[in-house]
């Protein structure tokens, strides 16, 4: 299912996120840290959706002879590690924290 296939009831970013959670039966929303600037945690609490923020503090991964560069796209990890190893890497090192 694509989010574009789900009718929009609102153009507001947060309402759209909650709408997608409701339609798909989501009970937890994992957000990037930059969204703290516009997400109002109370709206998620009112909708019974747990709000969590991903923490990007992954350890270095092998990049051949090139130095590790933090905070790159997941595409970099996939290119150097491959899809399966990237999944294991994220499962091992990924963490999140509860929203305020």
Provide an overview of this structure.
The chain has 100 residues and is α+β, with helices and mostly antiparallel strands. Helices cover 37% and strands 14% of the residues. It has 4 helices and 3 strands; from the N terminus they run αβαβααβ. It has helices at 13-24, 41-46, 74-81, 83-93, and strands at 28-31, 50-55, 95-98. A 3-stranded mixed beta sheet has the order 1-2-3. The radius of gyration is 16 Å and the shape is elongated. The model has no long low-confidence stretch (mean pLDDT 90).
Q: Topology, pairings included?
A:
Blueprint: H1 13-24, E1 28-31, H2 41-46, E2 50-55, H3 74-81, H4 83-93, E3 95-98
Parallel strand pairs: 1-2
Antiparallel strand pairs: 2-3
Helix pairs in contact: 3-4
Shape: elongated
Backbone structural class: alpha+beta
End-to-end Cα distance, whole Å, is 30 Å
Number of strands: 3
What topology, given as strand order, has the largest sheet? 1-2-3
Mean pLDDT: 90
List the helices and strands in order: HEHEHHE
**Proportion of residues in helical segments:** 25-40%
Rg over CA atoms, rounded to whole Å, is 16 Å
Give a quick account of the main beta sheet: strands, pairing sense, barrel closure: 3 strands, mixed
Q: Count of helices?
A: 4
Fraction in beta strands: 5-15%
Q: Which parts are unreliable, with pLDDT below 50 for 5 consecutive residues or more?
A: none
Short overview:
With 100 residues, the protein is an alpha+beta fold. 37% of the residues lie in helices and 14% in strands.
List keywords for this structure.
about 100 residues; alpha+beta; 3 strands; about 15% strand; elongated
């Amino acid at each position: 299912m694509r989010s574009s296939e789900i009718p929009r009831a609102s153009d507001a970013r947060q309402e759209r996120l909650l709408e997608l959670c409701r339609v798909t039966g989501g009970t937890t929303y994992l957000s990037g840290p930059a969204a703290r600037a516009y997400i109002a945690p109370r709206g998620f609490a009112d909708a019974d959706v747990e709000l969590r923020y991903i923490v990007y503090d992954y350890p270095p991964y092998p990049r051949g002879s090139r130095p590790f560069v933090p905070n790159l796209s997941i595409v970099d990890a996939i290119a150097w590690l491959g899809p399966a190893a990237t999944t294991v890497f994220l499962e091992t090192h990924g963490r999140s924290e509860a929203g305020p």
